[in-house]
Amino acid sequence: MEVVTFSYPMKERINNIGVLTSGGDSPGMNACIRAVVRLGLDNGLTVTGIYRGFDGLIDGDYSVMGTHDVSNIIQRGGTILKSARSKRFFKKEYREIAYKNMNERGIDALITIGGDGTFMGAQCMLEEFQVPILGLPGTIDNDLYGTDNTIGYDTALNNVVDAVDKIRDTADSHERLFIIEVMGKDAGFIAARSGIAVGAEAILIPETTTYLDDLINTLKTGWRNNKTSSIIIVAEGDDLGGAFEVEKKIQEHFNKYETRVSILGYVQRGGSPSAYDRLLASRLGAEAVQGLIDGKTGYMVGIKDNETNYTPLLKAVKHNKAIRSDLIELASRLSK
């Protein structure tokens, strides 16, 4: 894809890059911040950390960052810049305050790390004030178009697999059916891949219609094949409802199993990032700095087929990223 760039007048070349994290935290954000700071400094730029996402942009909660500020953070989960979902930023009057604060602090460009909401906010700054800006995909949901994986997704998968492996032990010991809910309000990437990895008997995701009859038949087949315990992975946005609703429907139609529900919740987003997420975040952070230096703006920077890929911010948000159909078929066939 052709990437559109802009030209800076000599007196307006980028000198100071602001970096922020917004929305839900994801493991690897710190590694990304580290890469932005270190590559910015390596190119003779000032890098300003903006705390608490777009709220910090509005409030002027900024700090110039040096190499020591990002020492010993690559292995840490969460984000040292903190994060928030800013309701104020939906109003133009507050975006104008944010832009004024940026100008007063000499911030020439922005790198925003986050997901859908983060990119929508970035697009507003681009359209209204022509701020040079690039977005980096930081979300465990892996639902942004234009990148094979988002920062934090691999770690979240490993967190789910680790938790379900432990639950499987007690499910087998007590001959129970466990219905485990994972994050994924609009996308089932975590459920689909973790479900295959843990050998789940059924995987319920928002992208496909869940037919109760098929689910019950799967459980009955397992019972006839002497399965005394089972695992069902449910994405929170599945059309049957959350895990408790699924349990209720199963008990109404097939009560052979003693059932339990486990909501994994925020444990999926925590912990030290995997090696893959550290590498991905480092590559993307470095590429974003270079991209701004080269005059690129208005894009999400991702990795596709191990190559850097630039996707317009709105396309990254609005174009649904599809789960591979062969994975869905594989999950079904392996559950029998």
Provide key terms for this protein.
single chain, 336 residues, alpha/beta, Rossmann fold, 2 domains, seven-stranded mixed sheet, four-stranded parallel sheet, 11 helices, 18% strand, elongated
Explain this structure to me?
The protein has eleven helices and eleven strands. α2 (53-59) crosses α3. The chain has two domains: 10-152 and 273-318, Rossmann fold, CATH 3.40.50; 156-269, Phosphofructokinase domain (Rossmann fold), CATH 3.40.50. The longest helix has 22 residues, at 153-174. By secondary structure, it is an alpha/beta fold. The protein has helices at residues 29-42, 53-59, 92-104, 116-129, 153-174, 189-198, 212-224, 243-253, 275-293, 313-318, 325-334; strands at residues 16-21, 46-50, 62-65, 109-114, 133-137, 176-182, 202-204, 230-235, 258-263, 299-304, 307-312.
Number of strands: 11
What sequence of helices (H) and strands (E) makes up the elements? EHEHEHEHEHEHEHEHEHEEHH
Indicate the overall shape. elongated
CATH architecture of the largest domain: 3-Layer(aba) Sandwich
Q: How large is the share of residues in beta strands?
A: 15-25%
Q: What's the mean pLDDT score?
A: 89
Instruction: Indicate the CATH class of the largest domain.
Output: Alpha Beta
